[in-house]
Amino acid sequence: MSLDDDDMPTTAPIASASADQEDAPTGDEVLEEEIQDFRLFRKDKNISAQTIRKGEKDFESHGTRAQENALEQSRQAMKEVLSYTRVHQTRNLVRGWYFPDWWAEWPEKEDESAAGGNATQGTQEKDKRPFAHMRDRVVILEGSSVSSTYLGRAVTSQPKETLARGKDWLLPEEALYLVERGSLDLWWPTRGLEEIFPPWKPDVKDSEAHPESEPAATSEAEVVGHAVESNTVNEADEYDQGIPLSVQAAYSLLIGNDGERGKVSLQKFQVYSNLKRAGYNILRAPPLTKQCTPQTPSVTLWQWLSSLLPSGSEPQPRPYGPLIQPGLYRSYVPIYRQMVIIPRHKPSAAPSSPWLPEDPFSVHFHIWKAAPKWSKLRHPPPDFYLAVVDAQETGVPTFQEITALVDATPPAPGKPEWTGPGRMYARLKHGHRNALVAVVDHGIINYMRFAEGAFGEELLFERFDSRNAPRSGKGGGRALSSSVIDTGTLDKFSKQPSELCVSGRKVEPKDNNTLDDDP
Amino acid sequence: MEEDMAESTTVMMASANEDTITGVEATLPSNASDATITTGPPTTSPTRVPLYKIYALPTPIRTFPLPTFYPSNPISLIHLVIVWLRQVVSPPQPEPSTIHVGVWDPNTRSVHVKDPGSISALWEQGFYGKGSLSRSEPNWMKREIGRRESTQGNTVSEERTEARREERRQAKWERAKTELEAIERQISEEALTQVEPAGDIVSASDAVLPPSGNSPAVAELESPLAEPEATEEVAFESQPPVQQAPEEAIPVMPIKEAVTAQLPVDHPIEVLADFSVKPSVQLVIQPKPPVGPAELLALPNSVTDLIRRPQAHEEPVPQIVEAALFCRPIVHKAPVGPAELLALPNSQADLVATSPQSHEEETHEEETLIQAKAVPICRPVESKSPIGPAELLALPNCLVELMSGSLLVKGEPKDFEAVPSQFQEAAHTLPTAKQPTAATNGHAGSKLVNGHAQPNGLVNGYATGASACVHREVEDNDASISETKPPVTNGACNGITSSILSDPASGAPETRPIQGEGPQLLKRRQSVLGEEAQPLKRRKSVRFSPRVVSTTFQHFDPPSPSRSTVSPPKASSPASSNGSATTISPPSPMTPPEPVTSLEPVTSPEPETTPDSVSESGPETYAVLKELSNKEHFQLAPEEAFFLSFSVGALSVMDPVTLAPIPTEDLLTLFRAHSYFPPRTVDSSVESLQPHDPFLVNYAVYHHFRSLGWVPRHGMKFGVDFILYQRGPVFDHSEFGVMVMPSFSDAQWTEHEHQAPRKSWSWLMGVNRVLAHVLKGLVLVYVDIPPPPVFDDAMKQGGIAVALKLYNIREVMVRRFSANRNR
């Protein structure tokens, strides 16, 4: 139970209960990884998970009747919870047809242009539509459902006489997820698409083919009601067109190896459905675009000039030390600056790694936290970038793999209020870019977050000079106030106006003219 | 010599600092003022030195900051000028002024620092080494003094930690106790509420539940949980737990028997009501022989259970017991039924554990009574050598168990000589297991009781080891006495050892009594014990096997050197070794019994030597404690030593043989070579030094963090390569654990397909879990290693200072992401 702590047995009932608004944040951060008290479920069916609190855990039976009663009650409550009747509302139920080769010939380039090329950066503009992955879409939906806000994709800007124009097409993981949830009735067609979805005629079922680009935006109840009606009418000849597929059949059709068109690997599907059930919004990440080789950050004239200055005057360190010249020092900054020989990593806006991410260490999914206004076409940049790897076939990523993966994500600096020495740990732990890696070990998913660390940005030694002073709180010592003129500049050993630079750096972390004189 | 030098420099620096300080205000960040403290061990002056002063220096370099100029305070300008002028006129010694001295030790792959001043200075400046005699701060000397001389005032951090832990243990214990009490209260309340309506149910449940044997034992265990009345009652029942068994069996004591028999009749409802709460607990009143499967299952699993049941004795009191009492020969049947087999003791511990109670709780009357009764028993009982499976199982499983018993004898060996006549009496009158206890003078007897009462204490190596030889001797005496019966002193020993030794042997046949003959068990054992001399005598046959001598002795070679010097010759004497060999031989099929040579009497110098050998180890030599030399030494890890030497220049490493300082270049080669095992030699072969030598990679990481101001420390305790402190363990917990990941991304490496061994995900998860448990974050530090040609060029061009620039270091922060928490 504790292993697959993310798979809460109660999450599914909650999710289905609140299927009407999938995006409703279930918000059970409270019951993070522990077993909740099932008895609280029983009191109120609509209870928010937040109110469920965990009880104390007994590790053994101590023979009191109170304990046995509690256990029995809890069992009973769990039974009741699990025996909750799940209702599939007709407006959530749609029928889908499996047409694996319909989009096989679809030119992806056109798709890309429609999608907007900069989707990788996660900063697509409002007008641009995200990458559609049309070639991988294998299931066409009859009508649309609530989940159309989150799943599926229709090809727009097609001529009116195109077959099944404006219909939503599902990716294999989306289709399988809906089938598993019971929201999708997947059918195997025995006729062609043109017969199941007859060409558009102005008089026939106009309402089904929405001219708009976003089918989900229309009134759903009307559409579904129409679909149901048509179903009942066509009940007799329903099986002429195709046969319904079981979940097992859906699995065998849609699960495949990595790289197969129209299929999804089992690991990716497991991650997809796990995150989807946890309430996230997920889209497939667009394929890698050829990134230009990381250009060196442009150097301003002043930086260039200042870089010339110390290099000439700075003496080459002695081959076998000591690195620190013997002498009299007024502060620790020059001492530590003499120790710098190993280059420090400096995070930058442009990706610094010369490698391109390779499977499996590449971003496979973009993930958003549940938000009320999220839609598959209009959404902010992703919250997380996720790669899915198999625990058995891969290991801890190598230097190239991890840097390429992390560099494929946009810079994500920490919160702006994380300034000052007090929040140093938070800054360091957050890193500058980060990517998630879902490690799937035979169905057990473990998410790891890898972030680009930059210890070189935190120069601890700058505080050494002031830290030996008594604290202002204790012993009546005086804290150094801003009115204090730093006499370090008088020192012949402090070569640069370093202290001033330091204070400037803290305000603006991205400023490059810091103390680091990396070669 | 070097230490003296270091000392002198320290003193000089201290005096120099005095001058510097005089004018400086105390409120200013005067690092110089701390020098006096940091160079020597922290002085325990009445006014405590604040930590930030003790641990003032982040590196072994002091700074001399000028006083701050306050525009509002013109005096501060004068002050500034004065200080500056003073430093110009008489400049302080160039830093690093103190050069510590260490000796390279190839065996531990570390640099040993022995000077106490250097040790404490290095510790305070963030060099922790790979380990020292102290757990944290190097304060071995302080601790030793505190430990040996004054128990007061040793305020070493270890002591405080220990005290805190003890406190916490106590608190936990208290908490557990209150929890348990709450549960007990709950149970009793529930029982109370259950009692009133449950009158009929009780009897019904009684009828349903099969009468099984374990009830009194369980009742005793459960007694604290039971409701008050029931508790009393049960306690009363089980009060004369073991020892009463024979007593009750004897019809001479009608009163007690009546009482015990009455009990269940008087308060049946309370007792049963209590147990009806938990159906697993059953109380037996009529011990019928168990036949059904339920009954068999409910049978006790060990003799302990059996012995603890007082009630089972009531009815059986059978003829067999009386037979034993009246000196009729007892025929042991081999246990055949499953119940009997289950009831066999699993180890000697079971048996031994039960006996202390018996000895302790015995009243004097009982003793005398039993003595009187038991004396006649001894002779006629014939005890067969173990043949049946039950008996074999019941035999002691290891010699240690047996040995442990004999420790008791060792304690007062002199008394054997001192009071021979008393022991003679004892030997005659008290040959059973009880007799030692009953012996009125009973040094040996009381010892025996103690030894039995604390079976745990017997486990410790010294006790068993030390007692081994004594045990053997005693046993020999015992053999001799049983044959020849001459020496007086042996009598007591005989009784004791035989009781110990015969316990297992006699326990086996007695496991039969599960079917209600429980009481007989103890009695039987007691009665048999006296006779065990005979079987022991027969088993003495192994006496002259030299092979057994050597093998048996090695296991019990006492750990303390004083003992070991004494005992080996003793062990080599065939007679002494035989004693233990005989006890082992029956259970182990490996040692076949050798031809009986038991008729040969054991010579009795043994008892005389026994006290000698024991007394030799006894007194601690207090003279040694007086001359206490500081054994503390500091083992600087190679990375730390190289950083101090190469980067700061504050350490000079000596060659262990020539005691000449090793130049840094050679030191680097040395460290690199010794980062492999076996150490690589510096030549041009394939197995020579490489740019990815573990030392170089680790040093690159160490230097990287150190040069940023972090305090890295080896993180073996946390399963990582380094842990990073912001200031040091005194001030804060480390926040990060660092795993060094060598990587070979250069094209020249990939050409040769040189790759670091790939770590598995489970490895990463494990490391992360452990670190998360101690609230640290994991940092994977990838070190991109330059290919050999580039590295060699750089080494030629500018030495290691240039070559290190080729190492590319990237930190990757790793954290587990919880999908449930981040929504």
TrEMBL record, chain A:
Stretches for region Disordered: 1-28, 110-131, 467-519
Family matches, as InterPro entries: tRNA_splic_suSen54 (IPR024337), tRNA_splic_suSen54_N (IPR024336)
Entries under Pfam families matching the protein: tRNA_int_end_N2
Domain tRNA-splicing endonuclease subunit Sen54 N-terminal as annotated: residue spans: 80-188
GO BP terms, alphabetized: tRNA-type intron splice site recognition and cleavage
Superkingdom assignment: Eukaryota
GO CC, one annotated term: tRNA-intron endonuclease complex
The entry's keywords: tRNA processing
Similarity comment: Belongs to the SEN54 family.
PANTHER family: TRNA-SPLICING ENDONUCLEASE SUBUNIT SEN54
Record protein name field: tRNA-splicing endonuclease subunit Sen54 N-terminal domain-containing protein
Species name: Lasiosphaeris hirsuta
Record lineage: Eukaryota, Fungi, Dikarya, Ascomycota, Pezizomycotina
UniProtKB/TrEMBL annotation, chain B:
Stretch list, region Disordered: 145-168, 477-520, 549-618
Xref: InterPro entries: tRNA_endonuc-like_dom_sf (IPR011856), tRNA_intron_Endo_cat-like_sf (IPR036167), tRNA_intron_Endonuc_cat-like (IPR006677), tRNA_splic (IPR006676)
GO annotation (BP), single: tRNA-type intron splice site recognition and cleavage
GO MF entry, a single one: nucleic acid binding
Catalysed reactions, as listed in the record: pretRNA = a 3'-half-tRNA molecule with a 5'-OH end + a 5'-half-tRNA molecule with a 2',3'-cyclic phosphate end + an intron with a 2',3'-cyclic phosphate and a 5'-hydroxyl terminus
Comp. bias (Low complexity): 562-585, 596-617
Family designation: Belongs to the tRNA-intron endonuclease family.
The protein's name in its UniProt record: tRNA-intron lyase
Record organism: Lasiosphaeris hirsuta
Lineage summary: Eukaryota, Fungi, Dikarya, Ascomycota, Pezizomycotina
